[in-house]
Write a structure and sequence with these properties.
single chain, 299 residues, alpha/beta, Spore Coat Polysaccharide Biosynthesis Protein SpsA, Chain A, 2 domains, 8-stranded mixed beta sheet, 3-stranded mixed beta sheet, 18% strand, globular
């Protein structure tokens, strides 16, 4: 298996959630290859350092502060400080199954590169969303699983950024995470981990699903709303547009058709039927903008 395992947790202005995550991590079983945890705070400097210090000894925890508020930049900065290791990525709003690190250690047995890993997750709601809205929310707000059997993953079903693992050498060989994706990026596109996983697969690296590597993702009420669903649809479209190629003309046609369909359905009494075309419209708006941004940047 990998000679080293390092846990990385980026954080920004979420002290209570970070403490909850570190308490959960401190209750996990630490495999022999575990070397430590790095908490990297980016943006405004709050109380993450004082919280991290409470877990310094138990988790061999190291705190890093970066003034630049960009998650991808924060992850890349940490990668530059890590020896060749299996890097397990969690966000500051999850709690973990106690055996999760052992599960990742076992999955990476006899490997030191060439694979990446991820597991399922459930959600911790403050207040559950209406049932009809769940199909429109991102899976980070409803949960995700591929079942109880280990399996190889495909590009259309990648892991979430708050529960996955990859070898540091593979990530560095691909020049790290894109600063044009994720929290703090100039484009506001989401999915820096998804973008990276896509590049890993394209380079021939295999993604493997680890069913026992379970986390629970905290979902506040504001992430169970129509506004959040439509915002995420737009940002996912933006991410797709930034990585697509070809003429923008067909995208404009699709965008116009989607806008008309939205107007025709706006008075439908079924909330799902009226909301579906609007979600499509927001997604296509993002795709079109992302494609235009990429075209401009290539000139």
């Amino acid at each position: 298996m990998a000679a080293n395992m390092v846990v990385v947790i980026p954080t920004s202005n979420r002290a209570d959630l970070l403490q909850r995550t570190l308490i959960s991590l401190s209750d996990c079983k630490l495999p022999n290859i575990y070397r430590g945890t790095i908490v990297v705070e980016n943006g405004s400097r709050k109380v993450a350092e004082s919280i991290a210090k409470r877990f310094q000894q138990k988790l061999n925890l190291r705190y890093i502060y970066l003034r630049y508020g960009n998650k991808s930049h924060a992850l890349n900065s940490v990668l530059a400080t890590i020896d060749d290791s299996l890097v397990v990525f969690f966000d500051d709003d999850v709690r973990m199954e106690p055996g999760i690190l052992e599960a990742y250690a076992e999955a990476s047995k006899e490997k030191d590169s060439g694979e990446f890993y991820g597991g399922p997750f459930q959600v911790d709601y403050v207040k559950p969303p209406p049932e009809w809205l769940k199909e429109f929310l991102p899976r980070s707000a409803v949960g995700w699983s591929l079942g109880q059997e280990p399996q190889r993953i495909q590009k259309g079903n990648l892991f979430t950024g708050f529960n996955w693992a990859a070898f540091s050498c593979d990530l560095r060989n691909l020049n790290g995470f894109s600063v044009d994706h994720g929290p703090g990026s100039k484009t506001s596109a989401v999915g820096q981990e998804t973008e990276m996983e896509g590049r890993l697969l394209a380079s021939g690296i295999v993604g493997r699903y680890v069913p026992s590597a379970m986390v629970w993702h905290y979902v506040p009420p504001e992430r169970c709303s129509r506004q959040f669903a439509s915002s995420r649809a737009y940002r996912w479209g933006l991410q797709g547009g930034l990585t697509s190629s070809g003429s923008v003309i067909p995208l404009i046609r699709d965008w116009l058709k989607s806008g008309i369909k939205t107007l025709l359905r706006i008075r439908n009494s079924d909330p799902g039927r009226s909301f579906a075309p609007y979600m499509d419209f927001r997604f296509k708006t993002g795709v079109m903008k992302g494609r235009i941004i990429r075209l401009i940047s290539q000139k």
